[in-house]
Amino acid sequence: xxxxxSLLIGHPEVFSCPETFFFVKAINGSGxxxxxxxxxxxxxxxxxxxxxxxxTRQVPGQTRMPRSERFCxxxxxxxxxxxxxxxxxxxxxxxxxxxxxxxxxxxxxxxxARFVHMIRAGSPTVASLMDVTRSYPxxxxxxxxxxxCVDRWRRAIAVSSAQVxxxxxxxxxxxxxxxxxHEVVDGVWRFLGLSDDPDALxxxxxxxxxxxxxxxxxxxxxxxxxxxxxxxxxxRVDRVLSARERTQIEGMIAASEDARLALPFL
Length: 266
Fold this sequence. Notes:
mainly alpha, two-stranded parallel ribbon, 15 helices, 6% strand, globular
């Protein structure tokens, strides 16, 4: 996702920032508060995150009455709109993969939002999740098992697959992105309604390291994003997974892989 983000923000009209985790902080995925349309008790953390990232200088003050999910979504959009305008941009991209768990709520609260689903094959995704949680357990809440990583990927594929046919959802294949980055990026820009910019498209690799650093600070596991664009699937699987684990995963993800391959990728 960071690779795609670093390429998309090569467009001169696009503003972006590091991951905010705003909606997983401000909105519960289930429970009584969510059923009542009330924001999470952690909503203030979401507001403060945007201030810490420099998206806004002002955050909502304390209130005795619980805030609504709708208020949080409206505040989030207005904060990003203003930040983009101040930067001289007319569009913005926010990229937090875990927002997938709040997708239906975000779509309901922000009906004109456009969603780009970045999809990667199962085995290398599982290997990547196992590797990063093993190497940085404190940042990821502990090391994840093979089964937990497989389950996370399968659930993500199910959520994305359920959006097929929706005009405000586009699907990007990691494997196609690394093999044809210009074509994929051009397709996403068009989906987002951005103006054609042949010069920007031709130069998406220039200063990509700088753009990557701006949107992935304090995340050392993303340092490889700044290097040349190559398909890292095979190397990651070979380095992280044993032959037994590869065979085990293949059986666990077969149905979800079929669903992935059926997605209408750009």
